[in-house]
Amino acid sequence: MPLVRQAVELGADIIKADPCDDVTEYHRVIEIASGVPVLVRGGGRAGDREIIGRTVELMKQGASGIVYGRNVIQHPNPAGMTAALMAVVHEGASAEEALAILERGDVR
C-alpha cells in the first residue's frame, strides 16, 4: 500500500497493483488511491473458480479493472476465460454466471 500512496503523490493517472492476500480488504488499496483508477494484477496461476471468484470480489471492492496474463494466456480456453472475465468486469456478472460463460465457451 505504500507504493500506491507514492504513485498517487507522484501524480499517477492509473495504478496497477497486486491483489491482497485477503481480497475483501482490497477496498483499503482503493481508498489509498484517492480516486485514481486501480487495475489489479493477476498474480500466480489459479484455478477457474478461484480467479473468477477473486475477480468478482475485487470488482465489488472498487477495482477499476484487471491486468491478467498467465490466467488467460495459459488457460486451455483463453477466449472463453476472456469472455468470462469481461462479463465480470464490464457487466457485473456473478462468479456463477461467469463460470457458465466459460463452460459454454461463449465468445462475444
UniProtKB/TrEMBL annotation:
Superkingdom field: Bacteria
Pfam families: DeoC
Protein name: Aldolase
Protein species of origin: Paenibacillus cisolokensis
